[in-house]
Fold each of these.
Amino acid sequence: MIASDLPGAELIDRGLRDLALGCETEESLLVSLAAVPLRALGFAVISPLADAELRLYRRLAAVHGDAAHGRYNGLVRRVVSFQRAGMRQLADKARIEAFLEALAQETKTETDVFVVGGTSAVLAGWRDTTIDLNLVMRPESDAMLRAIPLLKERLHLNVELASPDQFIPVPAGWERRSPVISRVGRVTFRHYDFCAQALAKIERGHARDLADVHAMLARGLTSEADVRAMFARMEPEMYRFPALDPASFRRAVEAALLPPAA
């Protein structure tokens, strides 16, 4: 088994085992699709399946219907994150804070930077490390955007400009609902609205994402009532996101808000 706590590790582990057994599964097709980069990272990808991309999409469509496209993209993102883990170092709290402080030095204008996902998890204290440092800024600072590639290389971090509103219809006002972490120079660092983060993680639906949702609820960073209320506000706008299936998303919300199994 792959000894890794990184996003996607469970998919790669299952896929490699299924391929070795000659089984066609979502995971073995996904590993087949990523065979070349995985081999470059030292993994023995045995007899990858032909036409993996098409076969994986057909399998997902048979199970998930109209939601297959979103499911496919989510799986691919997980594998990409895993691949990057082989080239980048994990980011702990100290390294994240060093990056954010250096980034703040690059602008002389008032800017809010919202951290997301694993970055929030590390800074809020329920994870020790993350592979991706995800953030979004408002307003966008050209100077800070130009600095990110250089800081990534200098600090050996993987930095992504990503936020929940790229994947789900986050209600207006999320900036005001985003709690402040710190202020450095003219930059205010915030956690992206935790309720929106929880719903984005529920929609993606991976085990690590659902564990993050339970951690947010346990720490009082959001509440079941707030998650349900925001989902109700989002539902009429889901037509703007063709990859979303509202009925499946609703079921996932209800399932995620059940107490985790002991």
Note: The longest strand covers residues 132-138.
Amino acid sequence: MLSERSKGFAAIITTREIWGASPLYYHAISEVPPLTILAHRTVWSLVFFLVILALQRRLGRIVPAVVGPDWRRVLVAAVLISSNWFLFIWAISVGRVVESSLGYYIMPLFSVVLGVVFLRERLALVQWLAVGLACAAVLVLTLGLGVAPWVSLALASTFAVYGLVKKRVSLGPFMSVAAEITVLTPLALAWLVHAGPGPGFGHDPVRTALLVGVGLITAVPLVTFAYGARRVGLATVGITMYLNPTLQFLCATVILAEPFTGWHLVAFAMIWLALALYASGLISATRAQGRAAAALVPNADAAIRGGYASRGPHD
């Protein structure tokens, strides 16, 4: 029998693997226009979310989540995540998966900077070094290739800002994503009516299954991630996030045979070093918090024992 922690870790790894290998899935339907794929992803994701919520007997919470006090933040989050999804799908369709993987590598460092600017968080020296290395890597790639890696920057910034907005949403993570997809679905349906459901949909069983499946590979990882995140530590969740862009990078260079120049190698090496520094800072901070919590336990036990000792027999 696996422990709850082991089950949680397996769920997190499964989630990262699905996200990391997803370029291969989207590449298989790359002849379908990216906006059409996005529309299918939105509509079928909502179907799966509604099924899950119905099984949980929480279906009636969707409308209050969409029109409730957080509706403005839900709307902004919906715009950001749909933009991120579209950029990712488009990047795969035009053979720029290497750039998309770079975007998800630097996304945590974008989030760190947003935390400093908007949440007044403080960074350790090693974290500032990581951010500086990431900026230098982007500069190296820009000078080397003669153009800024705007796909990477757009993916990183939209997802980082999305995370910032989500911090201010009072809804739970699963319900908030369901609300965002609900907001986007009317637009998705309108696009499918206007542009059509895409080549082969409804006639080719394989193509139809693949387009319906984009909702499944969106909804299932969110469920497994929520399951795993409740059972493992925050540091584990944070460190495993790098598995996603690493698998994307391997898909791009090994399977899809995208070009990988010397400039890419230098930039990626700098990013990997930056992430190693960032991860070491995260692990050190987590250990320090653990030691501080452990130091409080004996004091708490002593206080409890003292409290019981001072009570009378009828207290």
Note: The chain has a mean pLDDT of 87.
Amino acid sequence: MEVAPYDEQWPKIFQDEKELISSKLGGNFLDIQHIGSTAIPMMSAKPIIDIAILISSLDDAEKYLIPLGEIGYQFFKDRSSVERLFFVKGEPPRYHLSLAQPEKFSYWKRQILFRDYLIQYHDRALEYEALKKCLIKKYPDGRQEYCDGKNEFVQKILMLAENDNN
């Protein structure tokens, strides 16, 4: 794992991939958003573009597996949950993609709130960047420890974002 300096190409890379996904799925979704750290301007991040696709129901998710597979997305059941289905594209991974549904355990809402808050409050984005760099240094091979280490900060930001929206 590595944290790379912000790349001005990340929004364009997302946009190109969004167009590919949109054409493959034929508009059979509600929304596609660039989420995660690469969606936050001027913030260092792992150079993996995180994409969230909002679909009407995860009960219908089977119909997305083949089309996404045809454009290189591999489904990871063990990294999926009741609130999202998780896919990876590339080796090493270049894209993480999650299928989510509206309000089902609020995965979609949390991702958008977190991203938008860090875009609005750059000082918080810099805190998050510093935390991630520290965690990668501390756990260079530990994906789970890295994720667990971010959890308290993420929860704090979500709480602040919720309060801002009320």
Note: The mean pLDDT is 94.
Amino acid sequence: MKACIISALCLLSFGAQAKDYLNYHTYINNAEKSLVNDRVDSCFYYYDKAFNEFDFIFVKDATIAAEVALRHQDYSRLLWYLIRGAQNGLQTECLNLGVFDDLKNLPAYVTIHNSMDTAIEHYRARHAANAELAKDWQLRFGAMMDIEQLGSSDEKETAIKDNVKTVKDLLTTKGYPGEKLLGPMQDCEEMANYTAIRSLLLYDCWMGENHAALWECVKLGELHPREFATMCEAELSNEKNKNFHAVYNKSCYVKIKPWGLYFALYDYRFVSPQQYATIDALREKYGLCDIETDMKKLQLEKAGTYKFTFGKWHPPLNFH
């Protein structure tokens, strides 16, 4: 076990930073497809490729990979995946998630915990320049939630437009304010950063105005494909219901063609098998796993085998 730990710690030097994160998401999707079809060796192969070839990784992916390693008693990979997660903002507090209960019984638990602590300190040092920006967006997120519940229509519209303007400014300076730029939210139930998308989902024609720029953000790893797809579906819903909801970009349906694409993100269980091929082709193009893999992941999660779904917050929209 000691040799495995040393070997894993030596993997802190990564390969060259790949530029196209669609390759990263292809690896992750292949890993999850292999997992749900009981091809564990293949699952590890794709996780290893993703975490070796890319510097930044999404903490949710590292967490799920660690779940798999723990379940299959691959402790060298378990340590490595958790360190890779910590290097991108995964907190040691997240070891308290129920899926990691067995981890605490391992003789190497203290070493794993300490190794993550070291990695997260390096992460904080590297991201110190963006700490204030991350704090600002956390405050914006909280304010947005409060305004939605208690604010007036004018206050809500002002907050949404201000956040949208700020995102547009950041797209031309630092990039999309998501997990890569801001780090994950300090909440182990989230495993992402939704502080910007919360307002964007309520702003009509956001994708129509910014599709090309946001797609570049996906390819750079600044925006997760599922968040990109969520904004597409939100716009589709907004357009469909534009006569029944508050419109915060009043002229867009005249001047801009909305970019509403349908990925069956939240209702794939109700999609007919005849629609699978068309939707799966769209999912593949935009970096998402196929519907069958999503359905099998849901079954495994319901059985208590793995935890794939994170986040207490969900889009405030009724998708089709």
Note: Residues 2-126 form one domain.
